[in-house]
Amino acid sequence: MYTLQVDNIGCGSCVAKINQALKDLDSQASVDIDRTSGRASIRTDEALQTVCDLLTDMGYPARPL
Questions:
Q1: Is the whole-model pTM more than 0.85?
Q2: pLDDT tens digits for 7-16?
């Protein structure tokens, strides 16, 4: 499981976009996002760098905590 700080999560639509992108990357991914703190807990078989790059490319800069 990865815990990330994700910037620019402004609304529920942002959360939905992030969830969908991670599910597209790994259909078995489990995603929990706290919008107010910007923290995301992600359980996936994908590499940490792959997840961070995906979110950053979407406009949500992500870094591990």
A1: yes
A2: 999 999 999 9
